[in-house]
């Protein structure tokens, strides 16, 4: 005979109480203690303060790191010109090639400033301009170097200019490169050739704008180049146009003063 298994019976009242008790119910979960809430608030404040200070450190150290990296790369690059010569001579002093390069550039500037150096430079420039591809690269790089040269010649940027472009209410930042006279039937119009960079300082558009419609800010050429290269981050908060001095008129002397002097 098969043995009959006795089933245990649970009262209905206990079953209903077991079903009604939900451990995941937030209403019936035990309340949080004040200490845990304070601990969470302190952790949140500490985490926010630490992340803010960390980002502040990154913002401060980023330009310093970039400056030191570029400076170190430049020193190693310039030092590499003359350091192999000193290595062959048995002289191993770091920075000696860099100093020699600076002295060499200074002597080149002194030599080119003389009549003989200018003649040699002109011959070398003429030879470079005869090359098909090299002459275009040389001409573009020469125009850029002439723009920041301390000797402002005819090929350099004349002034910093602000023109209304491309629509009313918008302005473009550029440089005045030259002036041209437009002949008309009634009267001649003086125009200024304004170079507006579109890709940092190497590529841009040229606009012929009436000289009276150009805003000339109180910025130097170097400051204008820094604004273009930095993407406008070095733009001063206040820009005022340069006031041109009116033509001086002859001072009039009253007749009584003339009589007294006579």
Automatic annotation (TrEMBL):
The keyword Thylakoid does not apply. Residues 8-17 have a biased composition (Polar residues). It comes from the Eukaryota. The chain crosses the membrane at residues 54-75, 95-123. Residues 1-38 are annotated as: Disordered. Keywords: Membrane, Transmembrane, Transmembrane helix. PANTHER family: COV-LIKE PROTEIN 1, PROTEIN LIKE COV 2 ISOFORM X1. This is Protein LIKE COV 2. It comes from Stylosanthes scabra.
């Amino acid at each position: 005979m098969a043995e009959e298994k006795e089933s245990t019976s649970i009262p209905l009242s206990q079953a209903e109480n077991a079903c009604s008790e939900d451990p995941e119910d937030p209403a019936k979960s035990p309340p949080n203690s004040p200490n845990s809430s304070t601990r969470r608030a302190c952790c949140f404040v500490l985490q926010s303060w630490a992340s803010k200070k960390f980002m502040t450190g990154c913002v401060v150290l980023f330009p310093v790191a970039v400056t030191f990296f570029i400076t170190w790369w430049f020193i190693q690059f310039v030092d590499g010109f003359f350091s192999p010569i000193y290595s062959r001579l048995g002289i191993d002093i770091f920075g000696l090639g860099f100093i020699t390069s600076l002295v060499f550039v200074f002597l080149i500037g002194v030599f080119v400033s003389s009549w003989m150096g200018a003649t040699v430079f002109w011959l070398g420039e003429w030879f470079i301009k005869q090359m098909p591809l090299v002459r275009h690269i040389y001409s573009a790089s020469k125009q850029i170097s002439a723009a920041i040269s301390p000797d402002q010649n005819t090929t350099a940027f004349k002034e910093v200019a602000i023109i209304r472009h491309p629509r009313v209410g918008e302005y473009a930042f550029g440089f005045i490169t030259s002036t041209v006279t437009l002949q008309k039937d009634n009267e001649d119009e003086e125009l200024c050739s304004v170079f507006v960079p579109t890709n940092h300082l190497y590529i841009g558009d040229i606009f012929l704008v009436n000289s009276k419609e150009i805003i000339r800010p109180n910025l130097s050429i170097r400051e204008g180049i820094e604004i273009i290269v930095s993407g406008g981050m070095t733009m001063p908060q206040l820009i005022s146009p340069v006031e041109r001095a009116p033509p001086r008129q002859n001072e009039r002397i009253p007749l009584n003063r003339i009589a007294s002097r006579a």
